[in-house]
Design brief:
The chain is globular, with a radius of gyration of 21 Å. It has helices at 2-8, 20-30, 76-92, 120-131, 155-161, 164-175, 188-202, 209-221, 265-279, 301-308, 327-336, 338-347, and strands at residues 33-40, 46-57, 60-65, 70-71, 95-100, 105-108, 117-118, 135-136, 145-150, 178-182, 225-232, 235-245, 248-256, 284-286, 313-317, 321-323. It has 349 residues and is of the alpha+beta class. It has 12 helices and 16 strands. Strand 2 and strand 3 form a beta hairpin.
Protein backbone atom coordinates (compact mmCIF):
# COMPACT_ATOMS: atom_id res chain seq x y z
CA UNK A 1 0.00 0.00 0.00
CA UNK A 2 2.80 2.41 0.88
CA UNK A 3 4.49 1.85 -2.50
CA UNK A 4 1.32 2.82 -4.39
CA UNK A 5 0.61 5.82 -2.18
CA UNK A 6 4.18 7.04 -2.51
CA UNK A 7 3.91 6.64 -6.28
CA UNK A 8 0.81 8.81 -6.57
CA UNK A 9 1.31 11.28 -3.70
CA UNK A 10 3.03 13.94 -5.81
CA UNK A 11 0.98 13.45 -8.98
CA UNK A 12 -1.33 16.24 -10.17
CA UNK A 13 -4.82 15.83 -8.70
CA UNK A 14 -3.70 13.20 -6.18
CA UNK A 15 -6.76 12.19 -4.16
CA UNK A 16 -7.45 10.12 -1.05
CA UNK A 17 -10.06 8.11 -2.99
CA UNK A 18 -7.23 6.91 -5.23
CA UNK A 19 -5.15 5.48 -2.38
CA UNK A 20 -4.52 1.80 -1.79
CA UNK A 21 -6.37 1.96 1.52
CA UNK A 22 -9.52 3.27 -0.14
CA UNK A 23 -9.44 0.51 -2.75
CA UNK A 24 -8.98 -2.13 -0.05
CA UNK A 25 -11.86 -0.72 1.99
CA UNK A 26 -14.20 -0.73 -1.03
CA UNK A 27 -13.24 -4.33 -1.68
CA UNK A 28 -14.03 -5.38 1.89
CA UNK A 29 -17.21 -3.36 2.23
CA UNK A 30 -18.94 -3.55 -1.14
CA UNK A 31 -17.07 -6.05 -3.29
CA UNK A 32 -15.32 -3.68 -5.71
CA UNK A 33 -12.04 -5.17 -6.96
CA UNK A 34 -9.23 -2.56 -6.93
CA UNK A 35 -6.56 -2.39 -9.61
CA UNK A 36 -3.68 0.05 -9.94
CA UNK A 37 -2.34 1.23 -13.29
CA UNK A 38 0.15 3.91 -14.33
CA UNK A 39 0.63 6.11 -17.39
CA UNK A 40 3.94 7.18 -18.92
CA UNK A 41 4.74 10.36 -20.80
CA UNK A 42 6.48 10.58 -24.20
CA UNK A 43 9.87 10.01 -22.53
CA UNK A 44 8.68 6.85 -20.83
CA UNK A 45 8.59 8.48 -17.40
CA UNK A 46 5.80 7.94 -14.90
CA UNK A 47 3.33 10.80 -15.40
CA UNK A 48 -0.04 9.56 -14.17
CA UNK A 49 -1.95 6.80 -12.46
CA UNK A 50 -5.40 5.48 -11.69
CA UNK A 51 -7.00 3.24 -9.08
CA UNK A 52 -9.74 1.37 -10.95
CA UNK A 53 -12.58 -0.35 -9.12
CA UNK A 54 -14.26 -3.21 -11.01
CA UNK A 55 -17.40 -5.04 -10.04
CA UNK A 56 -19.48 -7.84 -11.49
CA UNK A 57 -23.24 -7.30 -11.58
CA UNK A 58 -24.55 -10.71 -12.53
CA UNK A 59 -22.91 -11.51 -15.87
CA UNK A 60 -22.02 -7.84 -16.46
CA UNK A 61 -19.00 -5.73 -15.52
CA UNK A 62 -18.78 -2.08 -14.47
CA UNK A 63 -15.60 -0.06 -13.86
CA UNK A 64 -15.06 3.12 -11.87
CA UNK A 65 -12.12 5.48 -11.24
CA UNK A 66 -13.13 7.54 -8.16
CA UNK A 67 -11.71 11.07 -8.36
CA UNK A 68 -9.27 10.05 -11.06
CA UNK A 69 -7.30 9.47 -13.11
CA UNK A 70 -4.43 11.55 -11.75
CA UNK A 71 -2.29 13.20 -14.42
CA UNK A 72 -1.31 16.50 -15.99
CA UNK A 73 -4.44 17.27 -18.03
CA UNK A 74 -2.67 20.11 -19.81
CA UNK A 75 -0.59 17.52 -21.70
CA UNK A 76 -2.89 16.42 -24.58
CA UNK A 77 -0.66 13.50 -25.61
CA UNK A 78 -0.55 12.14 -22.08
CA UNK A 79 -4.31 12.52 -21.73
CA UNK A 80 -4.91 10.75 -25.04
CA UNK A 81 -2.57 7.92 -24.07
CA UNK A 82 -4.27 7.48 -20.68
CA UNK A 83 -7.74 7.45 -22.23
CA UNK A 84 -6.58 4.98 -24.87
CA UNK A 85 -5.35 2.65 -22.14
CA UNK A 86 -8.55 2.94 -20.10
CA UNK A 87 -10.79 2.45 -23.13
CA UNK A 88 -8.87 -0.67 -24.19
CA UNK A 89 -9.34 -2.15 -20.72
CA UNK A 90 -13.08 -1.47 -20.83
CA UNK A 91 -13.46 -3.06 -24.28
CA UNK A 92 -11.30 -6.06 -23.43
CA UNK A 93 -13.35 -6.80 -20.31
CA UNK A 94 -16.70 -6.24 -21.98
CA UNK A 95 -17.60 -3.53 -19.48
CA UNK A 96 -21.02 -1.92 -19.64
CA UNK A 97 -19.39 1.34 -18.70
CA UNK A 98 -16.17 2.78 -17.41
CA UNK A 99 -16.77 5.82 -15.23
CA UNK A 100 -14.04 8.38 -14.52
CA UNK A 101 -14.40 11.32 -12.16
CA UNK A 102 -11.40 13.63 -12.58
CA UNK A 103 -10.77 16.11 -9.77
CA UNK A 104 -10.47 18.76 -12.47
CA UNK A 105 -11.96 22.22 -12.03
CA UNK A 106 -14.19 23.63 -14.77
CA UNK A 107 -15.17 26.85 -13.01
CA UNK A 108 -15.23 28.89 -9.83
CA UNK A 109 -17.99 30.92 -8.22
CA UNK A 110 -21.75 30.65 -8.63
CA UNK A 111 -22.60 30.55 -12.35
CA UNK A 112 -24.03 33.85 -13.54
CA UNK A 113 -22.65 35.90 -10.66
CA UNK A 114 -19.93 38.54 -11.21
CA UNK A 115 -17.18 36.60 -9.45
CA UNK A 116 -17.78 33.38 -11.41
CA UNK A 117 -15.36 32.18 -14.03
CA UNK A 118 -14.59 29.27 -16.33
CA UNK A 119 -11.35 27.27 -16.21
CA UNK A 120 -10.12 26.78 -19.81
CA UNK A 121 -8.35 23.50 -19.04
CA UNK A 122 -11.51 21.94 -17.64
CA UNK A 123 -13.47 23.05 -20.67
CA UNK A 124 -10.81 21.67 -23.03
CA UNK A 125 -10.80 18.26 -21.34
CA UNK A 126 -14.60 18.18 -21.46
CA UNK A 127 -14.49 18.74 -25.22
CA UNK A 128 -11.84 16.04 -25.61
CA UNK A 129 -14.03 13.50 -23.83
CA UNK A 130 -17.04 14.40 -25.96
CA UNK A 131 -15.04 13.99 -29.17
CA UNK A 132 -13.92 10.53 -28.04
CA UNK A 133 -17.50 9.43 -27.41
CA UNK A 134 -17.62 9.81 -23.64
CA UNK A 135 -20.78 11.31 -22.14
CA UNK A 136 -21.62 13.14 -18.94
CA UNK A 137 -22.81 10.49 -16.52
CA UNK A 138 -26.41 10.24 -15.40
CA UNK A 139 -25.06 8.68 -12.21
CA UNK A 140 -22.83 11.18 -10.40
CA UNK A 141 -21.25 9.33 -7.48
CA UNK A 142 -19.14 12.10 -5.91
CA UNK A 143 -20.01 15.72 -5.30
CA UNK A 144 -19.30 17.84 -8.37
CA UNK A 145 -19.13 21.13 -6.50
CA UNK A 146 -17.40 22.08 -3.30
CA UNK A 147 -15.93 24.97 -1.34
CA UNK A 148 -12.17 25.17 -0.93
CA UNK A 149 -10.02 27.27 1.37
CA UNK A 150 -6.45 28.28 0.49
CA UNK A 151 -4.39 27.25 3.51
CA UNK A 152 -1.24 28.99 2.31
CA UNK A 153 -2.69 32.18 3.80
CA UNK A 154 -1.81 33.21 7.34
CA UNK A 155 -4.34 32.37 10.06
CA UNK A 156 -5.22 36.03 10.56
CA UNK A 157 -5.98 36.35 6.86
CA UNK A 158 -8.09 33.19 6.88
CA UNK A 159 -10.19 34.65 9.69
CA UNK A 160 -10.54 38.00 7.93
CA UNK A 161 -11.95 36.27 4.83
CA UNK A 162 -14.75 34.69 6.87
CA UNK A 163 -17.98 36.54 7.38
CA UNK A 164 -18.49 38.33 10.66
CA UNK A 165 -21.11 35.91 11.94
CA UNK A 166 -18.84 32.90 11.39
CA UNK A 167 -15.95 34.54 13.25
CA UNK A 168 -18.26 35.34 16.16
CA UNK A 169 -19.51 31.74 16.33
CA UNK A 170 -15.97 30.33 16.21
CA UNK A 171 -15.04 32.41 19.25
CA UNK A 172 -18.28 31.82 21.12
CA UNK A 173 -17.65 28.19 22.08
CA UNK A 174 -14.25 28.60 23.78
CA UNK A 175 -15.57 31.58 25.77
CA UNK A 176 -18.28 29.32 27.18
CA UNK A 177 -16.23 26.23 27.98
CA UNK A 178 -16.10 24.30 24.69
CA UNK A 179 -12.82 22.52 24.01
CA UNK A 180 -11.55 20.48 21.06
CA UNK A 181 -9.39 17.38 21.18
CA UNK A 182 -8.07 14.85 18.69
CA UNK A 183 -9.95 11.56 18.58
CA UNK A 184 -8.27 8.16 18.81
CA UNK A 185 -9.30 4.69 17.66
CA UNK A 186 -10.95 4.11 21.02
CA UNK A 187 -13.35 6.97 20.18
CA UNK A 188 -14.80 5.21 17.11
CA UNK A 189 -18.01 4.11 18.90
CA UNK A 190 -18.48 7.69 20.15
CA UNK A 191 -17.93 9.10 16.66
CA UNK A 192 -20.49 6.66 15.30
CA UNK A 193 -23.02 7.46 18.02
CA UNK A 194 -22.94 11.16 17.14
CA UNK A 195 -23.06 10.40 13.42
CA UNK A 196 -26.06 8.06 13.79
CA UNK A 197 -27.85 10.70 15.88
CA UNK A 198 -27.20 13.31 13.22
CA UNK A 199 -28.41 11.02 10.44
CA UNK A 200 -31.65 10.29 12.28
CA UNK A 201 -32.22 14.00 12.93
CA UNK A 202 -31.32 15.26 9.45
CA UNK A 203 -32.66 12.34 7.45
CA UNK A 204 -29.57 10.96 5.69
CA UNK A 205 -28.44 7.36 5.25
CA UNK A 206 -26.17 5.83 7.89
CA UNK A 207 -24.71 2.34 7.95
CA UNK A 208 -23.98 -0.01 10.87
CA UNK A 209 -21.14 0.71 13.27
CA UNK A 210 -18.90 -1.99 11.75
CA UNK A 211 -18.87 -0.19 8.39
CA UNK A 212 -17.50 3.05 9.86
CA UNK A 213 -15.16 1.27 12.25
CA UNK A 214 -13.62 -0.28 9.15
CA UNK A 215 -13.60 2.89 7.01
CA UNK A 216 -12.58 5.45 9.62
CA UNK A 217 -10.37 3.04 11.54
CA UNK A 218 -8.44 1.82 8.50
CA UNK A 219 -7.72 5.35 7.30
CA UNK A 220 -6.81 6.60 10.78
CA UNK A 221 -4.36 3.72 11.27
CA UNK A 222 -2.83 4.47 7.86
CA UNK A 223 -2.38 8.17 8.62
CA UNK A 224 -5.00 9.21 6.04
CA UNK A 225 -7.75 10.31 8.44
CA UNK A 226 -7.88 12.54 11.50
CA UNK A 227 -10.86 13.23 13.75
CA UNK A 228 -11.57 16.10 16.14
CA UNK A 229 -14.17 16.10 18.92
CA UNK A 230 -15.69 19.21 20.51
CA UNK A 231 -16.61 18.76 24.18
CA UNK A 232 -18.38 20.66 26.91
CA UNK A 233 -17.94 19.54 30.52
CA UNK A 234 -16.45 16.24 29.25
CA UNK A 235 -19.50 15.54 27.06
CA UNK A 236 -19.02 15.20 23.30
CA UNK A 237 -21.02 17.78 21.36
CA UNK A 238 -19.79 17.34 17.78
CA UNK A 239 -17.03 15.92 15.62
CA UNK A 240 -15.39 16.23 12.23
CA UNK A 241 -13.58 13.45 10.39
CA UNK A 242 -10.93 14.63 7.97
CA UNK A 243 -9.37 12.64 5.15
CA UNK A 244 -6.02 13.93 3.94
CA UNK A 245 -3.55 13.07 1.20
CA UNK A 246 -1.23 14.82 -1.22
CA UNK A 247 -1.82 18.57 -0.85
CA UNK A 248 -5.43 18.44 0.33
CA UNK A 249 -7.38 17.89 3.51
CA UNK A 250 -11.09 17.03 3.04
CA UNK A 251 -13.91 17.45 5.53
CA UNK A 252 -15.57 14.11 4.82
CA UNK A 253 -17.82 13.56 7.81
CA UNK A 254 -19.37 15.70 10.51
CA UNK A 255 -21.87 15.14 13.29
CA UNK A 256 -23.37 16.95 16.22
CA UNK A 257 -25.49 16.24 19.25
CA UNK A 258 -28.93 17.76 19.70
CA UNK A 259 -27.78 18.94 23.13
CA UNK A 260 -26.13 22.32 23.75
CA UNK A 261 -26.44 23.40 20.14
CA UNK A 262 -26.44 27.00 21.39
CA UNK A 263 -22.69 26.60 21.98
CA UNK A 264 -22.19 26.27 18.20
CA UNK A 265 -19.35 23.71 18.39
CA UNK A 266 -19.42 22.94 14.65
CA UNK A 267 -17.96 26.37 13.86
CA UNK A 268 -15.06 25.93 16.24
CA UNK A 269 -14.43 22.44 14.88
CA UNK A 270 -14.10 23.69 11.31
CA UNK A 271 -11.63 26.34 12.36
CA UNK A 272 -9.57 23.86 14.37
CA UNK A 273 -9.68 21.45 11.43
CA UNK A 274 -8.26 24.14 9.14
CA UNK A 275 -5.57 25.00 11.67
CA UNK A 276 -4.63 21.34 12.01
CA UNK A 277 -4.48 20.83 8.23
CA UNK A 278 -2.38 23.95 7.77
CA UNK A 279 0.04 22.85 10.49
CA UNK A 280 0.44 19.49 8.72
CA UNK A 281 1.50 21.26 5.53
CA UNK A 282 -1.69 20.87 3.49
CA UNK A 283 -2.37 23.75 1.13
CA UNK A 284 -6.08 23.22 0.48
CA UNK A 285 -9.02 22.55 2.79
CA UNK A 286 -11.93 21.03 0.88
CA UNK A 287 -15.40 21.17 2.44
CA UNK A 288 -16.45 18.21 0.24
CA UNK A 289 -19.79 19.15 -1.18
CA UNK A 290 -21.89 22.07 -2.42
CA UNK A 291 -25.23 22.27 -4.28
CA UNK A 292 -25.66 21.44 -7.94
CA UNK A 293 -28.48 23.97 -8.13
CA UNK A 294 -27.67 27.20 -6.31
CA UNK A 295 -31.12 27.90 -4.95
CA UNK A 296 -32.90 27.34 -1.68
CA UNK A 297 -34.71 24.39 -3.26
CA UNK A 298 -31.48 22.37 -3.37
CA UNK A 299 -31.29 19.91 -0.44
CA UNK A 300 -27.72 21.02 0.30
CA UNK A 301 -28.60 24.70 0.55
CA UNK A 302 -28.44 24.92 4.34
CA UNK A 303 -25.12 23.09 4.49
CA UNK A 304 -23.79 25.32 1.73
CA UNK A 305 -24.70 28.48 3.64
CA UNK A 306 -22.81 27.14 6.65
CA UNK A 307 -19.72 26.32 4.59
CA UNK A 308 -19.59 29.54 2.57
CA UNK A 309 -19.30 31.56 5.78
CA UNK A 310 -15.74 30.32 6.16
CA UNK A 311 -14.52 32.46 3.29
CA UNK A 312 -13.63 29.77 0.78
CA UNK A 313 -14.08 29.63 -2.97
CA UNK A 314 -16.92 27.79 -4.65
CA UNK A 315 -15.17 25.29 -6.90
CA UNK A 316 -16.99 23.44 -9.69
CA UNK A 317 -15.54 20.17 -11.01
CA UNK A 318 -16.24 18.48 -14.31
CA UNK A 319 -18.01 15.55 -12.66
CA UNK A 320 -18.21 11.91 -13.73
CA UNK A 321 -18.04 10.84 -17.38
CA UNK A 322 -18.88 7.43 -18.84
CA UNK A 323 -17.31 5.46 -21.64
CA UNK A 324 -19.70 2.82 -22.97
CA UNK A 325 -17.87 0.53 -25.41
CA UNK A 326 -21.04 -1.51 -26.02
CA UNK A 327 -24.02 0.88 -25.89
CA UNK A 328 -26.61 -1.88 -26.20
CA UNK A 329 -25.35 -3.42 -22.94
CA UNK A 330 -25.47 -0.02 -21.27
CA UNK A 331 -29.08 0.48 -22.29
CA UNK A 332 -30.01 -2.98 -21.03
CA UNK A 333 -28.24 -2.42 -17.74
CA UNK A 334 -29.86 0.96 -17.18
CA UNK A 335 -33.28 -0.55 -17.88
CA UNK A 336 -33.09 -3.66 -15.70
CA UNK A 337 -30.85 -2.53 -12.84
CA UNK A 338 -31.70 1.08 -11.90
CA UNK A 339 -31.43 0.23 -8.22
CA UNK A 340 -27.67 -0.29 -8.44
CA UNK A 341 -27.17 3.12 -10.02
CA UNK A 342 -29.32 4.75 -7.36
CA UNK A 343 -27.37 3.03 -4.61
CA UNK A 344 -24.07 4.34 -5.99
CA UNK A 345 -25.45 7.87 -6.02
CA UNK A 346 -26.67 7.61 -2.45
CA UNK A 347 -23.34 6.29 -1.19
CA UNK A 348 -21.57 9.43 -2.48
CA UNK A 349 -18.13 7.84 -2.17
Amino acid sequence: MRDWNNTIRALPYAHVLQTAEWGAFKQRSTGWQPEQITFNDARGQLAGAALILTRRVGPLTVMYVPKGPMLDYSDPKLLASALDQLERMARRRGAIWLKIDPDLVIGRGVPGEPDSGVEPLGEAVTQTLKKRGWHFSESQVQYRNTITVDLTRAEDELLKRMNQGTRYKIRYGPKHGVTVRAATLTDLPLLYSLYAETGARDGFLTRPLAYYQDEWGALMRSGLAHALIAEYESTALAHVILFHFGRTCWYFYGASSSENRNLMPTYLLQWEAMRWAKAQGYTCYDFWGAPNDFSEADPMWGVYRFKEGFGGTLTRHMGAWDYTPYPILDRLYSRVMPGVLGAMKRLRR
